[in-house]
Amino acid sequence: MFIGRITGSIVSSQKVEAMVGQTLFIVEPLRVNEKDQSDLTPTGRSFVVVDTVGAGQGEVVLCVQGSSARFTKETKTLPIDAAIVGIVDQVHIGSTEIFNSTEK
Amino acid sequence: MFIGRITGSIVSSQKVEAMVGQTLFIVEPLRVNEKDQSDLTPTGRSFVVVDTVGAGQGEVVLCVQGSSARFTKETKTLPIDAAIVGIVDQVHIGSTEIFNSTEK
Amino acid sequence: MFIGRITGSIVSSQKVEAMVGQTLFIVEPLRVNEKDQSDLTPTGRSFVVVDTVGAGQGEVVLCVQGSSARFTKETKTLPIDAAIVGIVDQVHIGSTEIFNSTEK
Amino acid sequence: MFIGRITGSIVSSQKVEAMVGQTLFIVEPLRVNEKDQSDLTPTGRSFVVVDTVGAGQGEVVLCVQGSSARFTKETKTLPIDAAIVGIVDQVHIGSTEIFNSTEK
Amino acid sequence: MFIGRITGSIVSSQKVEAMVGQTLFIVEPLRVNEKDQSDLTPTGRSFVVVDTVGAGQGEVVLCVQGSSARFTKETKTLPIDAAIVGIVDQVHIGSTEIFNSTEK
Fold first, then answer.
1. What is the number of other CB atoms lying within 10 angstroms of the CB of residue D41?
2. What is the ipTM of this complex?
3. Min CA distance, A83 vs chain B (Å)?
């Protein structure tokens, strides 16, 4: 899985029938800063994911890719390859908290 | 999933029987501009995808990869790893619309 | 799926029993030229694929990756992650033909 | 599979129900040093994985990706695409030991 | 599939039960030399794979990735995403032999 930030959303009126009603977010994957591991840095990549947990714009989320994106109640018959499966509250590197959703 | 623009198509007369009659488009993935997130920029990569929604040349579409490309009525028995599952109308980053299919 | 050119082949006498008799080609993926989209350019990567359509050395082919490589009659029980599912006759970008198998 | 070091962990209180109680580690993949193959070097990438073997912070572990991450007793119904399936004791390149978990 | 050279091995005493007794090799993928296609060159990447054919240190092997790594008798229930499915005897590019396991 990867950690990403919800940066946007897409609207698609003409789509596969099973996808009607699904929220499609754009997520930018984050990674632990390579230099000093003191924060999460954006990767510049863009993924489209289906939300299963009620996440919202700007939140940092846990995303799953591939066939496992269909292993939730909400997504099991969908033609999708990426889904949000959790909202990230905190990230720790060693004993240091480098991300907390209640700050900033 | 990823967002891409249909740039072309391929013709293949000698192919796996199940693929006869399928439209094979070339799609170039797009990503949100890293600098200011103000538009979608091309990535220079090329994918071949099967269309399931009646998309056409030049349109911006939502594509799924991997085994999930077989999770539509049209594609469930096909040896394919990528399919168009929606036509993109609008893309929003935060509250800003950065793509609208009715403009250019 | 991706488009690639068959550049070579491999011989493996000691292999998984199900693979006996399968043709193993080396394919170099091609992509649409980023600059002016006027031709297909090599990517420098190497994949090994199983042939299902009777393709030959030098031909440009359509390849599928992942579990879908097993979705043909010939490959359904094979431990393979890539297969040729079509021979490419023509590639069009917009209305321009950038590849034709009968030329060159 | 790939070898990685557990660098941290994430907390997610709002997540898919099946994921409740699962330990979510951040792992940085390692690779054999390209120059002289004398040690394992970090790649700067970040993956989130589910633990199935009782691994801990700082340990070097064996990780599996994709649908196979669901092929353990602990993970078979989880929407995950990466899992720790072993703790690495030693790594040998040729006859040279380049990693031993009991040192450093 | 990809071609790789077995460069080493790993020892993991604490692992998923199904993995007990499996040989875990480190493989470095090779690719056809981009310049003149005259030999196989190392890529600097590292994969961990399960052996199914009795391969050994230094040999050039054919590896499969993803769910298909489970499509051999030896691996069908294992949580693995990569397996050796053949030992490579020769590689030809066009009509030129660029690798022969009996030399060097």
1. 13
2. 0.94
3. 9
